[in-house]
Amino acid sequence: MATPAAQAATPDDDTTTLTGAEIRRIQEKQIPAPAWKIAIRYAMDKRGTPYVWGGASRQGYDCSGLMLRAYEAAGIELPRTAAEQYGAFSRKISWDDLKPGDLVFFSGLGHVGMISKPGYMVHSPHTGDVVKEEKLSDWRRQAFVGAVRPDRAGVREWKQVLEHREETGPAPLTASVE
Question: Does the keyword Iron-sulfur apply (predicted)?
Fold first, then answer.
C-alpha cells in the first residue's frame, strides 16, 4: 500500500508544473497590447481601402478619419480633424524622436499619418489613392509640422478646453478707434 506522500506524486495527480518561460508566456497573453500597437494594427489592416473625403468607415477614410478610428479601436478618443488632433496634445514630438504610433502632421496641419515603423508611416493620402504605408521622404520632412504621441490624458485635457470654450461662448470682439 502506498503512503500518502507517494500517492501525491503519482501520474494520476492533477498537479501541473510550469517552467518560468511558460509562466511568462501566460502572463504576457493576459497583458493588453499598448494603445499604439492596437492603433497601428487597425490602420495597417485598412491598407487598400479607398480615400474618401470626410470618410471614417470601411467604405473609405480620409487622413484624420483613419487616425480617429485607429485610436478609437485602442480606446482613445481623438477629435475629428487633423488640426484638432494636433491641438489635442500639449506635448509635441520632434522629427528625430518619432516612434511607432505617433501621429505626424504635414502641410500646415492639412494632413496626418501614423508612424508604423521607423522611417515609415501609414496614411490615407488623397482622392484617387488608398490607405497605404510609405517611406518618409525628404519631401515629407520639409512639409513636417510636428507630431504627437496620443494618450488618454492628453485627449481629456483637450476635451476640457473645448467644453470650456462652449460654456463661455466666443470671445467678444473689441475695437478701438484712434
Answer: no
